[in-house]
Amino acid sequence: MHFTPFGDAAVLIQLEQRIDPAINETILSLHELIQASDPIGYCYSIPAYSSLTIVYDPETTSYNDFRERLSQLCQAVPMKHSEGPTISIPVCYDPDFGLDLNDLSSAIDLSTKEITNLHLSRDYRVFMIGFLPGFTYLGMLPPSLECSRLDSPRMKVPAGSVGLAGLQTGIYPLESPGGWQIIGRTPISLFRPMSDQPFVINAGDKVRFISINKREFHAIAEDFRKGSYQIHRHE
Amino acid sequence: MQSQRTFGKEAIKFTGMSKSLILHFNQPGLQTLVQDDGRYGWHHYGVPVSGPMDRFSAYLANWLVGNAIDSACLEITYSGPIIEFSESCQVAWCGADISPTLDGLELPGYQTINVKAGSVLRFAKLEEGCRVYLAVGGTWQLPKILNSRSAIPYTSDTATPSSVIRKGSQLEVKTGNPIQTRTLKKTFFQVGNKARIVTGPEWSKFSPAEQTFFLCQSFQLSPHCNRLGYRLNPELEGYDSRGEMLSSGIVPGTIQISNSGQPVVLMADAQTTGGYPRIANVIKADLDGLGQLKPGDSLTFEPVNLDEARRAWLNKKDKFISLIGLSA
Fold first, then answer.
1. Kind of pairing, strands A124-129 and A161-165?
2. Minimum mean pLDDT among B2-11, B22-31, B80-89: which range?
3. What would the pLDDT profile of B201-246 be if each residue is shown by its tens digit?
4. In chain B, what are the domain boundaries?
5. How large a percentage of chain B has pLDDT more than 90?
6. Phi, psi of A73 (to 5 degrees)
7. How far is A137 from chain B (nearest CA, A)?
8. Does position B327 have pLDDT exceeding 70, yes or no?
9. Best to test chain A binding among B203, B251, B307 (most A CBs inside 10 Å)
10. Which residue in A49, A55, A58 is closest to B313 by CB distance?
11. Mutate to test the interface with B, among A3, A6, A8 (most CBs of B within 10 A)
12. Chain-chain contact of A12 with B146 (C-beta, under 8 angstroms)
């Protein structure tokens, strides 16, 4: 395991730099192990695709001592992260929501229907959550859906937008700037700050998109607001 | 103008009861936010730390009014609000000097001020720095979201609406018994035009010429600077984009180089992950000084090693603790 200093208050573990479920499993296992062991000086950690940022308190520990504690801990890492649930996320692929569907259709030479069907054709692993509270990085897309980011990012991507970038797909939990190509929108809010459980999805879970029409979109949005919509989780 | 010594001499009457104080904001100022020490333990869900851009100034202001140092206070940026106090209370400000006055009299910083009911606090010209922290003695009656009262970036309108001050906003503070007034020399305040850095995880991916440019250049804060981050000018000369890396962790003080070669210093509200190479990190001890910079200010970087960075932080903490006489 390779440790490097990251600033004067964090340690960075970087594994091979590629999007790979096995590498990501190791990162999540390390994150859970370190979080649970809470070594002296530990503050918090940020798991990503193939890296883990571990922030420590330099008042309590030096870099070398902290790295040594991590190094010993990581020898014991169980390399299998427990299998997460599959979470069903309803998405409306209407062009009113799928802001880039038409442009994307010409760019990758597939009809909008084909894009939608391909997007729905598999379950996606949640590799990481970052960028914004609750923004999920999902992969991998079917290769024929691979696409670039927008040349100039949007100033405002509507909350719930489902986008594509490279071989990744993701869900914007909040209205924010963003450069992913938007193909649909979910009525489910993935960040509910007032709730006891503010986040619906965890890294390591799987996401299954379910196609809904506009009428269903509005009905689910309303139920969700009232708290009567049950998100389907398959353990 | 009357002597500023008027303030702090007139003791608040002891009532032995907690009172409900309302701060009425007749004007919001450019950006006035409630900030406590921020959010911890939510980073793996993409939630930024937040908290004061100049933490030690916020801590000192809270200490001066007898609050726990990590309590909520107001972070006032660049131009100040107009605040009317419904009840008598104790306040203190630390950080940038935005020429505050209370009922028309100059209001000194770095000391406990006894405020009478009905008094009005105003700010005028920004003299030094960028952000001032105004503490009010008592318990702020604001909900905690993810265990913090800090305004949450991107979604503060819906998630933490009371933490973002608007015209007509009202904040309630339950005040307790006033404390003996405290005074400090103006301290821990720094406009951080020179920031010490340690090299970042991707430092070695930059060419020697780019590294030298980064270390020798006097940068300037562009107009695109806020609590998320500071974009600096100029861009690295002849920078050839390395393309994006896989997204990886970001901590406050991380300096990324964007595809166009522009250095971006990530600040308190920064995203938790990013995909640009991380050339360096501003050391912890110098983050507060960065929080006092504004667009147009200059910024240069001075490399130090990890031991020096840690010593700088320990020194700062030691000084702070010996100053206020409690464990921070």
1. unpaired
2. B2-11
3. 999 999 999 999 999 999 999 999 999 999 999 999 889 887 668 8
4. 4-175, 194-324
5. 82
6. -60, -45
7. 10
8. no
9. B251
10. A58
11. A8
12. no
Inter-chain touch B310–A62, beta carbons under 8 Å: yes
Facing B249 at nearest CB: one of A51, A133, A135: A51
Q: Residue B324: which of B153, B129, B110, B126 has the closest Cα?
A: B110
pLDDT (mean) for A172-178: 90
Residues of B with Cβ-Cβ distance to A48 under 8 angstroms: 246-249, 273
pLDDT band of B297, cuts 50, 70, 90? very high
Look at residue A149 in the predicted model and tell me its pLDDT: 86
- Contact criterion met (CB < 8 Å) for A59 and B306: no
DSSP B210: H
Q: Identify the pLDDT of residue A227.
A: 87
* Residue A47 exposed, middle or buried by CB count within 10 Å (0-12, 13-18, 19+): buried
Residue B187: predicted pLDDT: 84
CB within 8 Å of chain B, chain A residues 114-173? 128-135, 137
The reply to whether ipTM tops 0.90 is yes
Report whether pLDDT(B10) > 60. Answer: no
Mean pLDDT, range A27-34, rounded to an integer:
94
Beta-carbon count within 10 A of B183 CB: 11
Q: Do A59 and B45 touch (CB under 8 A)?
A: no
Q: Which of B236, B213, B224 is nearest to B301 (CA)?
A: B213
Question: Quick check: B7 pLDDT over 50?
Answer: no
Which domains does chain A carry?
3-74 (3.30.1360.40), 86-234 (2.40.100.10)
Nearest to A59 among B42, B154, B313 (CB): B313
CA-based nearest distance B186→chain A, Å? 24
3-state secondary structure string across B119-132: CEEECCCCCEEEEE
**CATH code that applies to domain B194-324:** 2.40.100.10
pTM: 0.92
Per-residue pLDDT band for B6 (boundaries 50, 70, 90) equals: very low
Give dist(CA B153, CA B151) in Å, integer.
6
Q: Please, which residues 30-59 of chain B have a Cβ atom closer than 8 Å to chain A?
A: 40-48
* pLDDT for the residue numbered A79: 63
**Mean pLDDT within A202-217:** 97
